[in-house]
Amino acid sequence: MNTAVALVLLLGVVLYGVFGGADFGTGLWDLTAGGAQRGQRPRELIDHAIGPVWEANHTWLIFCLVVLWSGFPTAFAAIMTTQYIPLGMAAFGIVLRGSGFAFRKVSIRTAEQRVNGAAFAASSILTPFCFGAVAGGIASERVPSAGHGDPVTSWLNPTSVLGGVLAVFTCGYLAAVFLAAEARRRDDRVLEVWARRRAVGAALTCGALAVAGLFVLDHDAHRLYVHLLHDGWPCLTLSAVAGVAALVATLRGSPALVRPLGVLAVAAVLAGWGVSQYPYLLGTHLAIDVAAAPPATMSALAVIAVIALVLVGPSLVVLFLLTARGRLEGD
Amino acid sequence: MAARLLSPAATPVPKSLITSADNSRVLLVAAADPSQLLPAREQMAFTLGFHIILVPFGVAFTFITMIANYRAIRHHDADALLLAQRWSKVAAVLFAVGAVSGTVLSFEMGLLWPGLMKRFGAAYGIPFAVEGIFFFLEAIFVAIYIYGWNRLSPWVHFWSGLPVVIAGVGGTLSVVAANSWMNSPSGITVRHGRVVDVDVWRVFFNKAFWYEAIHMLLAAYVVAGFAVAGVYAVGMLRGRRDRYHRIGLLVPLVVGAIAIPLQIFMGDVIARAVFHDEPAKFAAIEGLRNTGTHVPEELGGVMVDGRLRFSIPIPDGASLLSGFSPSTRVAGLNAIPAKVRPPDHLVTIVHLSFDIMVGTGFLLLGLALWFALAWRQHRLTPASTWFLRATAISGVVAVVSLECGWVVTEVGRQPWTVVGRLLTRDAVQTSGNLWPFFAGAVVIYAGVTVGAGFALRALRRRWAAGQDVSTPYGPDDEHAPVGAP
Q: ∠ CA(B294), CA(B295), CA(B299), 5° rounding?
């Protein structure tokens, strides 16, 4: 049962990585879209693409938090008493991002739009960096089981920086892929090309980072490196193959394949992280069974996860379908 | 062990004994408050106090909007339709801020109170997991409802609001289940300081659950109803007395006016439940020093040297309200073991907050009665200036009441985080320094408040100018039409 709940947690992390990631990534392209004149149309595309779905996409984070603190309270406390700096920044980033996005949508003056837009875009980069850095610290055994680890080196270290930067560009990649699809739906060739270029750029960056990252892990987090290659290799291979295939599909113009392949590439990396850490929750020292809450809690969480799947799953499908068909156009 | 040491009978521990492992608990209890306690509590109060203002709009605003929406479809009422559409745009802004400020609270569970989560996450966390489902459904359907006006059929669109209303109720019940569990922790078996078994039903449906949950749910409808009505009362005071403004005033005002008497009735029931189940909190609410009968209800006042001063007593009031008889025995603060007795300033805060909550509640009840009388007499909106003035400020009054209610339940639980099981000072974060974090929260939330103000003003100006379409991003709207302020 403990492993089942850990799997639910991993599933939550993967879904947050994919949906929340695609959502965060739009901020990267929003920030770099240029001045008010040049960036107007990309920003409108971003606005329409994530307007109806961003809150749902970020609920996966809440899902992960509640499963972690109910199912594995000691691990939650250990992370929170160690990596409180990046997590505090992420919390603030989430506030600025959501508020900035919602406010920009309704503000009239360019100056107000600019302030709100900058808050939205900058925090869209800061927050995934923090989460990537936190993941890097956990994976590289820098969060002690009893908590109260080093507040700085637990997230400012080679593995964390790799995790953070990789997170930012992975989000950017996913966002570009989704934005290209949205532009195509609108028959907007210019924006489609705009987004596809960014997808290719981000994909190449992520690929380079991943290769460089293996060297970083070999030196900085050798045990993780060994586990990744030993247990996680199917996931890594899947990710690499899907990533290359998605890139080819983007360049050769087979748009239908790009989204599923791109999502698969990112999901496989996150799954690979989980697989290579198993049976540990933190690094290679806090085992799932040791951190787990009493059986009754774990059963309750499993039941709640099933109910969530039954209720939330179809609802999300409806939301995404309506959005994809352009039925949720604000104005 | 802990229980014995927490009791007043515990004698001071000689210094020579303090080295033994058994006495680590004594040290903890006897030690001065950890330095992080103050910033942690300030930050929790600040961020929760901020978030709770937005909660009513997430929970109850959609219901109010659906009433106007129903009227619009059923009676082809163009004014009601315009109101419903505009309300859902305001809701989009408020829901966004509510969602992100709520996310911060979940981070703070760990960042501020890791001791609570580590020891009781297995039990306390479960209601939040349930809430996660409701919040998910709310986020999904609120988006469909807000963005679906134009391209969904009217009735399909209307019904997409219903899950939002249901999820609002479910989410409120779940979060309050977690809060009420802190007041009335049940359903756990603790061995050697660790939760070893959890009875999920008894955690969720703890003794304080029903009354706290219904109280908060009604509060959401009271606040949203009066706050929205207040906006249109202001408009009418400025001379815009058209049908659009009348409906905008009436629909939410009816909701608030129905909710407030129910709330006052519930408040009375809850006070007696607190009297029976949480005597320490009740003593703080009453500012009562000594246990006794014929206890007066003291209005106002401050605690000085353990005694309530400058208050106005109503003879036998507290005894009558809590047990329907002047001879009802009410426990005083002195009955609480000295080590866990709340200090004077906290008792003052709880006592005054309670008085303000009840007082403002009765003001709102008065407004509701005034409304009902005017309705009976005129069958129309009461258009008297004084009534509109009262309605205009009723939203603020309702928010004050809401905040005071939370102060009563949160401060009234001190020094406990989980009553009888975990002291707040043992729950708090001990790593790092929380002051900069708190300062950051104040700055960012201030910025968000200003931003929300500008955003809502932009909406109002646009509507006053008769524009309902969104403005494109980019230059040259510096001179966008600006309507009457």
A: 140
Taking an 8 Å cut-off on Cβ atoms, the answer to whether B110 and A97 are in contact is no
Taking CA–CA distances from B121, the nearest residue in chain A reads A70
Predicted TM-score (pTM) of the model is 0.90
Q: Do B143 and A113 touch (CB under 8 A)?
A: no
**What's the rounded Cα separation, in Å, for the pair A286 and A271?**
19
Structure tokens that stand for B247 in this block: 């409906």
Distance from CA of B214 to the nearest CA of A (A): 23
Of A90, A98, A327, the CB nearest to B152: A327
Q: Where are the alpha helices (DSSP H) in B75-208?
A: 78-111, 114-147, 154-159, 162-183, 200-204
For residue B197, which residues of chain A lie inside 8 Å, CB to CB?
A: 294, 296
* A319 contacts in chain B (CB < 8 Å): 140, 143-144
> Which residues of chain A neighbour B139 with C-beta distances below 8 Å?
55-56, 58-59
Nearest CA in chain A to B133: A308
Of A90, A98, A328, the CB nearest to B99: A98
AA letter at B402: L
**ipTM entry:** 0.92
Q: Dihedral through CA B127, CA B129, CA B130, CA B133, nearest 10?
A: 150
SS (H, E, C) A46-58: HHHHHCCCHHHHH
Map tokens 């106005």 to a residue: B312
Residue B185 backbone class (left: φ over 0; alpha: ψ -120 to 50; beta: rest):
beta
Please name the amino acid found at residue A185: R
Alpha carbon distance B359, B363 (integer Å): 6
Q: A111 CA to chain B: closest CA distance, Å?
A: 8
pLDDT of chain B along its 485 residues, tens only?
333 333 333 333 333 333 333 334 434 444 567 888 999 999 999 999 999 999 999 999 999 999 999 999 999 999 999 999 999 989 988 998 999 999 999 999 999 999 999 999 999 999 999 999 999 999 999 999 998 888 889 999 999 999 999 999 999 999 999 999 999 999 999 998 889 999 999 999 999 999 999 999 999 999 999 999 999 999 999 988 889 999 999 999 999 999 999 999 999 999 999 999 999 999 999 999 989 899 988 898 899 888 888 989 898 888 988 888 888 899 999 889 888 899 999 999 999 999 999 999 999 999 999 999 888 887 655 568 899 999 999 999 999 999 999 999 999 998 999 988 999 999 999 888 889 999 999 999 999 999 899 889 888 888 888 766 555 555 444 333 333 33
Shortest CB distance from B455 goes to which of A71, A103, A330?
A103
B474/A37 Cβ within 8 A: yes
Q: Give B280's contacts (C-beta < 8 A, 6+ positions apart).
A: B331, B333, B336, B342, B419
**In this structure, are residues A122 and A168 in contact, taking their beta carbons and an 8 Å threshold?**
no
Taking a C-beta distance cutoff of 8 angstroms, is the pair A194, A175 a contact?
Answer: no
d(CA A146, CA A16): 27
Option in A95, A101, A312 nearest B133 (CB): A312
Chain B partners of A50 at a C-beta cutoff of 8 Å?
Answer: none
Q: Could you tell me if B333 and B342 are in contact, meaning their C-beta atoms sit under 8 angstroms apart? A: yes
Q: Measure B152 CA to nearest chain A CA, in Å.
A: 7
Contact B118 A326 (CB under 8 A): no
Tell me whether residues B122 and A293 touch, CB distance under 8 A: yes
